[in-house]
Amino acid sequence: MNTLSPTIHLIDDDDAVRESLALLIGTVGLRVMPWAEPQAFLDGFDREGIGAIVLDVRMPGISGLSVLDTLVAQGVDQPVIMLTGHGTVELCRELLIDTLQQAVRQHVRSRERHQADRHARDRYAQLSAREREVLGLIVEGLTNKDIGRALTLSPRTVETHRANLFAKLQVESLAHLIRHYAALVEADDSPTP
Hints:
Order of helices and strands: EHEHEHEHHHHH
Number of domains: 2
Radius of gyration: 24 Å
Number of helices: 8
Shape: elongated
Helix content: 55-70%
Oligomer: single chain
């Protein structure tokens, strides 16, 4: 994932509009990938990249709305900004740049959250069944002694499992462990795209 160089995919069949928007977007340091043909864009753009998509609503052949439907059906997570030929140039300039910058920041944060969730699930998968049991009881607020009684373990063994949990999940405090566990449960309950 390349978070250092977000790309704005600009799809517009009008050469003059595409060139002027590409120049405008480039003035704020965003990399622009212009596309004249919607199908070429759908066939060639990097779905794993960071950035946003700017689509003209009205294009011959495949309309911007059809492209949007295709992107949604494919589970593309890059933000999409739809353009229409109506409105003033000044309004377009200010709104487009502001909207693009916000969209790119949001996309970067979203990808970072997903990556962190994926790493957390990977670390959780490394836990033994017993460590998962101990984790669940820690989150419920039980002491080492109570956990030992519940699982017929010595408090010393519970302490060892607890230390392993902290190491494997890469957490430094009980509060962090509980937040980590809550995020894992939340991620497991959320629908996957």
